Structures are given as C-alpha cells and as structure tokens.
Amino acid sequence: MPLATTCTLALLAGAGPAQPPEAAGWRHAEWHGIRPARWRALPGGGVAVEGHGQGSFVWRRKEVPPACLAWRWRVDHGPPATDLTRRGSDRALALSVGFADWPARVSLWQRTRHAAAQAAAGDHPLPRSVLIYTWGGTGREPALFPSPYMSGLGKVRVLRPADAPRGRWFEEVVDLGADWRAAFGGEPPMVQEIAIGTDTDDTRSRVAAAVEDIRLIPCP
User: In what order do the strands lie in the sheet with 170-175?
Assistant: First the structure.
C-alpha cells in the first residue's frame, strides 16, 4: 500500500497527531442546535471528518473566477440514503462553492432570508448563491435541485449516492461556470468561498470521511 494512502487511513482512524482544520487554512463553523463533527487537517490542504449523529462544516475564502473544480474524496462510514430534496436528510459529505453575487433572478423574499442568515452567521460573509456537490442521497434526486435549506439560493448535485463504494478514493471534476448557468441563469459571478460539510444528526449515523487535493483547473 502506498505511504500516502497508509498515512491517510491512519488519520481517518484517529491515529497520529491530529491537526485542527485551521492548520490547513480552513475555519470551522457550526449549525445551530447540532453537535459539531470533529475535523482534522490532512497533508496538502485537505480535511478529514469524524462524528456520530453530528454535523458542521469548514470553509475557506477563495476569490477566483469560476473554472473547473477538481478534488478527490472518500467515505469510510456514512449515513444511509435519504431524500436530499427534503428537510431532515443527511449526507456524508457536501462540497459547496459559494459565489459573490445573486442569481440572475432574485426576489425580495430571498434577499430578506439571506440577510437574516447573515445576521446569524456573524463575521462569516455568506455567499449570495451556492453550488453544492454531495456524497449522499438516494441517487434518484433530480440532476440539479434546490437545497431545502437555502431559499432557492443553493442548488444541489448528487455526485455519489449514499450507497457508493466505501473505503476508496474517487476523483471528481465539475465545471462551475456551466453548473451555475444551469442552476441560476446568466453569467456566473466570482467564486467567493469553498466549504466542506457533513450532516448525520437526523439518522444518528457514524461518519468517517476525507476530502483532499482541491484545486481549480482550466475547463476542457
């Protein structure tokens, strides 16, 4: 087994010195009323997460034009399939890309909901539109659907359903510009942040997962 894989497995299992996510440039944030998961930095700027019936996310500022985003991730333990179009659903991982401006059509109600969320978020400047790529769900969700938590300002794509193989890495590449146009219409604004989250509080499930090698690359 390659040394890098061995080291990653040790970190996922909790062996060795654990570095907080801030060591890799991430900030940890919690959701109200949910016990936070445990996040650790991985070599190369990635993160690993563990928890049981817990949920939280890490985020980092990333001000760049939209391009193609690549990363790799793995899930060793995660929640069962839940319908991600509904509230009360869980997912092992979600990689979210926040953008600096509104969708092409945004209502006063959406702006008001965003302002309320921003007041609760404190010094974390919330993006005004979000693409969410998940490892979780049934796999029967629409190709691109509204997050039930974001008042139409977040759109979700299931890349790996909950029953995807466990304990192995998967490589992903997504075209942020194309996905933003399909989700919201118009030309995509600047990327503002990247966030990685987990959510297992509704199913009370165990999660052990990791994301690494996150990078923006030219689109084909």
Answer: 38-41, 47-52, 206-217, 68-77, 170-175
